[in-house]
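pasting for ref. prot 1 ->
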Amino acid sequence: MNYKSLTLFFKPPKDPRILALATLALALVFMLVVNVFPDSRKATLVIDLDGQKRIFEGETFKGMTILDAINISTNTGKITFIYALTADGVNIAALGDYSNTSLTDKFLFYLNSKPIAPSQINKIVIKAGDRIEIKARSQL
């Protein structure tokens, strides 16, 4: 076997930055192949009622609102969610075991850890990577 030809084929690059860049590129390709990065089209909804958390994750679509995400998640998770659209926005009548004629003020809503008005959940558009949280006030 001719070892000289193998040495020429596997000759290390003269500039170490080329080797580092090639290694980084291979690592990135590997991470993408094994799906280390989360799906970039998903959003998360956390419903926290009396310390019992339900976490939903799903794909977003163009123009999707917080109300859309809650509707999809509560239907999937078989959680009661009854609301009415009024001139002032959304009036929540029931969520989980909570029911009343108006519970809008009894829950706190967050989008990416920032508080939002419950009555506005039908107007706030979400995007991939967003995290929506609903908490019962008694937990705070």
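and prot 2 ->
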Amino acid sequence: MPKKISNKEAEAKAAHDKAHKQRVFISDFLGQHSLQMGVAYFYRGHYIYVYPGGHPIEIVPFSIKKGINFTGCVRDAAPVFYPNASGLIPEPTVAAFYQSKVSLYRDRVDQDESIAREYEEAVEDDDMEVGVGRANS
């Protein structure tokens, strides 16, 4: 029997799929990229454009149930994007999106290790207090 998923889980999956399947162009970068990567670079000051049309889009800066939302913007609000222009660089040469994911992972591991150390120290302190209490009894 298949596992029944909640509406919240279904919405999260739909948002995840949209972020990975929707393709966009990112200013200064060669090729097409996932919307998820486009959002990361949008908040780093890059423009993003619908693939394949090349129309500029902006990310709507509030949370919605179905994930990332974007809207078209006036063409004058962003420079024209030419996908075959010389001077575009491959995104992996910058890798800011990848580096931010690595940094978040390292921060999470450091935080988990810190919590584990605090827990161990608290347990040791409790053990010492219990041991001292027994010695005085």
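Residues 1-90 form one domain.
Confidence is low (pLDDT under 50) at residues 133-137.
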